[in-house]
Amino acid sequence: MNSKTPVIDLSQCVGCEACLALCPDVFVISDTGYIEVEQMDDYPMDCVDEAINCCPTNCIQWKNQ
Ligand code: SF4
Question: What is the pTM of this model?
Fold first, then answer.
């Protein structure tokens, strides 16, 4: 099991959907219109790192579980 999980600071998220485009298995839109992180045992590091680097407000971070 991966020890790290991506988390989004929704107070900073502007809903640009860049993370969705880059990593659609991990980042999804909830019913309420906010970006959510899917529950996964192992997150694809490269894909999430790319989303972290491309997020315009730097609101995605890895969190140690
Ligand atoms: S890339 Fe960042 S600002 Fe854009 S939707 Fe994803 S979390 Fe929000």
Answer: 0.92
